[in-house]
Every structure is written in structure tokens, then in C-alpha cells.
């Protein structure tokens, strides 16, 4: 394939297709040789240089022995510091616990705080592994459908209140910024949810892993920062993996607001749920302490790409409903107005040779939707858009600015 043009962003736009296909990760490995993957939420960009340097240094120093962390890893104060600097939230380092993965964080909290058959309210559509976790753990899913309005996707506070009361929910799983719609809930919207949580004594499990991928002027507000009551009832789940493209380091954090839940967690055998790798801690610290410049460039690229997706869809697939994502690198596309005779994921793969996500795994009423990952180079994204548009019968006209890429 030809390389990106000089005016692009080095490290972001100079991706080589053959090197991407040679990667061992699931995103590219699962796609065929002639397929472009834009499905799972991994970015195509290389590891941030400060993170790569820190990991190399640990290897060069032969520093792979048991860590000396009698009071927890150094991520605990680092998390508290970052929350204060980024969001003005006075999180407590003493309430932070490390896990290997955000899904594990959720599963542990559900295991400790809820019981078999308990009702858990959750926005729909939603991240498929979260919904699968609730089903596997036999927690009754109470869907809180997001409403597609003229301006964005919204939660309906009255509907949330009614559903929580009707089904006697024990917990609310809040994904904010939201995957897959890309919404960033405002302080007022979060305040409405906080009132409902207090009224019904809900545990709020707040997944905030996309917090650092909010696009200006939208700003992330940690749910636990809203009030003392919100802080006491909220468990916050997060990681550096999404904002710095580090999924394989297997390092995530849980901030426990409820005293009782933290005590239950600490009463468990110390290694029952695994321990975080020192290399995961090294990578996360390097990202948080030295990766901000890289992240600013990343957000510039993602902002350009989200606008590109939005513009191409409006021009060439005007019937497909789509809102400019306020956060993340994921676009949520409603293809139902096209009246397709097969699931859009299958159609785009068969006719366009692009692998996307979507459909029933994202919850009730998600059939006919596609989730498109636009965290890739300008050239690859343009080729993805060209193929998707053609597969869905869009108007003619190139989405890209050059020749078609070689398969």
C-alpha cells in the first residue's frame, strides 16, 4: 500500500497495512487478508513512545521480580492525583484497588454487592461483554433505552426512575462516556441520575474508561464527584488502556466509594482474583506521567476522523442516522432506514470486506445498528468508508482522497 501523505500525523497516519496484518491481536488476526477491521475497540496506532520506553527500561534493568508494594501499587496515589488534576475530583488513594481488566473489576463488584437473580439497571445499547457478564452471572438486566433525539442520544430520567422502582434494582451500571453511542453525559444529566440513585438507594457502578477521550467542548464529570452521597454509593471503574491504546497490559483500577463494599473486597483472600502485573503498572504510570503530549495528538487525529465519518455518511448515506460522537473513537450507525434484507454487519463484510461490530450483542433494539471504530490512519479510514458506503448502496463518490488501497 502507499504510505500516508507528509501532511498527516507521524505515528498516526503513517501506518503500514502489512505490519498491521502481521500483528497477533484479535482485531487484525480475525480479519481475512482482504478484510479491513473496524470492529473491536482497539486503536491501530503504535504504543505511545513514553510507554514503550518505560517497558524497555524495565526489561533492560532486569526488573521483573516480585514488587515491593506493602500498601498497594503506586497506581493508587497516581490515580488520585490524575483525578484531581483532570476533573477536580478528590478521589481517595486508599480506596483504589488494582485488577487485571475492567470486566474483571465489574464482575468482582457484582459478585460482592449483588446476588443471584438481583436486578441491575443498564443503559442500552451497551458494551457486549457487560451485558454478557450480567447474563452469565444471572443478574436480571433492566434495560434503560437511550433515546435517539434530533441532537444526540439521551437518557430519560423519568423512565429510569420508573424502571428502577418497578424492578427493584440493586445497582445501576452507568457507562459514561457511553459505548457505543459516544455520549458524554452532562453534569445536569448525571445529577438527575444521582437523585434517582439516592431515592432508591442504588449502588452506582460507573464505567469511566473512556473519560480521557472526550472531544472538546464536551467534558467528562466523574459520577462520584457530584456530591458526598454520590461518592458514598459509587464504584468507579477505569484504566489507561483505552486512552493510550494499551489493552494487552491487563491493568485496571476500581475506586470503592461504599465503606461496606471496600471492606468486603479486602476481606477476600489477597490473590483470589489475581494480581496486577508490575509491567502493567509501569505502562500505566508512564502513560499518566509522560503521555499527555501523545494523547493531545491522538485527540486531534480522532477529532479529525470522527468529523470525516460524519461528513461522509451525511453526504453518501443520508438515510443512515448518526450523531457526531462526543467521546471515544466509535461511531454508532442506525442502518434500519435502509430497509436491508440482511444484518448490516454481514452485508458490509460480504460486499465491502470490512469487519464491523453491531446488532443483538449490544442489547435490545440494536438489530440494524453498526459500530465503526475510526481509530486508524486517514488513508485506511477513507478506504473503510468507501467500502462501507458501497456495500450499503450509498451515493457514488470517493470517500478518500487518492487511489484505492491494495488488499
From TrEMBL:
Record's protein name: cysteine-S-conjugate beta-lyase
Organism in which the protein naturally occurs: Streptomyces fumanus
Pfam families: Aminotran_1_2
Cross-referenced InterPro entries: Aminotransferase_I/II_large, Class-II_PLP-Dep_Aminotrans, PyrdxlP-dep_Trfase, PyrdxlP-dep_Trfase_major, PyrdxlP-dep_Trfase_small
Keyword Lyase tagged: yes
Gene3D superfamilies hit by this protein: Aspartate Aminotransferase, domain 1 (3.90.1150.10), Type I PLP-dependent aspartate aminotransferase-like (Major domain) (3.40.640.10)
Cofactor (UniProt): pyridoxal 5'-phosphate
Catalytic activity, EC: 4.4.1.13
Amino acid at each position: 500500500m502507499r504510505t500516508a501523505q507528509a501532511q498527516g500525523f507521524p505515528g498516526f497516519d503513517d501506518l503500514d497495512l502489512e505490519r498491521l496484518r502481521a500483528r497477533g491481536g484479535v482485531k487484525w488476526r480475525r480479519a481475512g487478508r482482504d478484510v479491513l477491521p473496524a470492529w473491536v475497540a482497539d486503536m491501530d496506532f503504535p504504543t505511545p513512545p513514553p510507554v514503550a520506553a518505560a517497558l524497555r527500561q524495565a526489561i533492560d534493568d532486569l526488573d521483573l521480580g516480585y514488587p515491593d508494594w506493602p500498601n498497594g501499587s503506586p497506581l493508587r496515589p497516581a490515580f488520585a492525583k490524575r483525578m484531581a488534576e483532570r476533573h477536580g475530583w478528590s478521589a481517595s488513594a486508599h480506596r483504589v484497588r488494582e485488577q487485571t481488566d475492567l470486566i474483571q473489576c465489574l464482575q468482582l463488584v457484582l459478585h460482592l454487592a449483588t446476588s443471584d437473580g438481583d436486578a441491575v439497571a443498564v443503559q442500552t445499547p451497551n458494551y457486549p461483554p457487560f451485558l454478557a457478564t450480567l447474563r452469565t452471572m444471572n443478574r436480571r438486566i433492566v434495560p434503560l433505552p437511550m433515546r435517539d433525539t434530533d441532537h444526540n442520544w439521551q437518557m430519560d430520567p423519568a423512565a429510569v426512575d420508573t424502571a428502577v422502582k418497578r424492578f427493584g434494582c440493586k445497582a445501576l451500571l452507568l457507562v459514561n462516556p457511553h459505548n457505543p453511542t459516544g455520549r458524554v453525559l452532562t453534569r445536569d444529566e448525571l445529577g438527575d441520575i444521582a437523585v434517582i440513585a439516592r431515592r432508591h438507594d442504588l449502588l452506582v457502578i460507573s464505567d469511566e474508561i473512556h473519560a480521557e477521550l472526550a472531544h472538546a467542548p464536551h467534558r467528562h464529570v466523574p459520577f462520584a464527584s457530584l456530591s458526598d452521597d454520590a461518592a458514598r454509593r459509587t464504584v468507579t471503574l477505569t484504566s489507561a488502556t483505552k486512552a493510550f491504546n494499551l489493552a494487552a497490559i491487563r491493568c485496571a483500577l476500581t475506586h470503592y466509594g461504599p465503606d461496606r463494599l471496600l471492606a468486603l473486597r479486602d476481606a477476600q483472600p489477597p490473590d483470589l482474583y489475581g494480581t496486577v502485573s508490575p509491567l502493567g503498572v509501569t505502562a500505566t504510570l508512564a502513560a499518566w506521567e509522560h503521555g499527555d503530549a501523545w494523547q493531545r495528538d491522538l485527540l486531534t487525529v480522532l477529532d479529525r476522523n470522527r468529523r470525516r465519518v460524519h461528513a461522509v455518511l451525511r453526504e453518501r448515506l443520508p438515510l443512515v442516522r448518526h450523531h457526531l460522537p462526543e467521546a471515544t473513537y466509535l461511531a454508532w450507525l442506525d442502518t434500519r432506514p435502509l430497509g436491508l434484507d440482511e444484518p448490516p454487519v454481514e452485508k458490509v463484510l460480504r460486499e465491502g470486506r470490512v469487519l464491523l461490530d453491531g446488532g443483538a450483542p449490544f442489547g435490545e433494539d440494536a438489530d440494524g445498528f453498526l459500530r465503526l471504530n475510526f481509530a486508524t490512519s486517514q488513508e485506511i479510514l477513507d478506504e473503510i468508508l468507501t467500502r462501507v458506503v458501497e456495500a450499503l448502496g450509498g451515493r457514488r463518490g470517493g470517500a478518500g482522497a487518492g487511489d484505492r488501497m491494495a488488499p
